[in-house]
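Continuing the batch. This is chain 6 of the set; chains 1 through 5 are on the previous pages. Same settings as before, nothing changed between runs. Recording input and output for traceability.
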Amino acid sequence: MKKLITIVSLALSAIMVLAGCSGSSAATTAAETTAAETTAAETTTAAETEEETTEEETTEEEATEVEVEGISFIVGSYSMMEVKTITDDSCAEYFGESTEEGAAKQAVMDIISAGNAFINSYQISETAEDFAEDYPDGFMVNGETWMTVGENGAYTVDKDEYEDYMEAAIALIARIPAGNEIILFDMDEDGFCDTIQATYRSAFIVNKIDGNKFERVSLDAEGEKPFDGEIAAAGSPIEAGEVVGDIAEGDMAFAIETPEGWHVEKAYPVTGKLVEGIDHEYYQIDDTQYADAMRFSRDNIVISNRCGEFTNALKYFGLAGEDASIDVTLWFVKPSYGDTLGAPAGFTCDDSKTILETAIAQANDKIAANPSAPQEAIDELQEAIDRAQAVLDDSSSAPEAMTYQVYLLYLKLHGSADDIGAAFAGYDYVGFDNQLQ
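Output for chain 6:
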């Protein structure tokens, strides 16, 4: 039997006011910031939802709708593949007085069994029998299948198999990557959290807006793979049932698929000089370093605007550092409660044209300075320069189309061997620099 939590705020939840839990999160992945301007008040349809949903019916139970406060827990990470989530022993204090090993995990199991655990407002079924009835095709998150049950009765979550349903359900929660938000509520007001609403956000850069429809850029990739996902793909826009924030073309946004449809919210921008950055470690804007978030969903952001790849390209062309001539914007998850930012999702830049002009000029200079380079290497680099110049000369080129050409020039010059994202996405370039005698 499914229980529905109605969306009435940026928290994507409606329960009771939290009482007794400490503020912010027990595990964070980004530096604290004083920025707290974007709040649940920006939700464009919250008021309408509050009026309209009181008469809605669910499969077994009526929707609960109350203005709420909660606590935003930001998922952390121990490593690339292992997250620090609410089942960690350090989180036991949220759920009860016991601090014994395994207390947090047991508490989360109890919350699932009570029907009070949700991902993107989809209830995690209370029992194995309920799961078979509720999700015969598997538990879907933003169009991806996250949990299935096989003919042998075993559950598969993130390629791992589980014989026990509750262990699989715990693994389902643990599949939510670092930098995402899990909101905890105290429904019975006993001082401890008893309801979980996890939110999995898929980031993309908005290239076109038509009413409540959002679409990303179309790229002529010539057999390459600039995207790893299909959300908001060109020609297949997202039609949002709810929009949070004043989203403009060129902004980064998050897509969240819920039982009521797609929810699209504006990411939180931090603009300044890209002083330094190391892929999978941190990115420094002006005087503040922001930790990376492992496995955060950037599949629907063009590869050249993802955190590490954008940083690598700008550093190569001398456009990063305290004396950098351009400003960039790093976009974040802004949790519903508290001032700690979540995952850095990716970069954009209003000066993409300047970046591309700089990259083309340096590539031309590199050829001119190395006439004895292998002719094949020169020809390949010249072809990349010509393609980049065509994009630069096209007045209709989107900023992401220009940064993509910057990234390709970086790979053509530097090579792809030590670029983690390029290697993972199948880009394989020797690099002009590596072919010089």
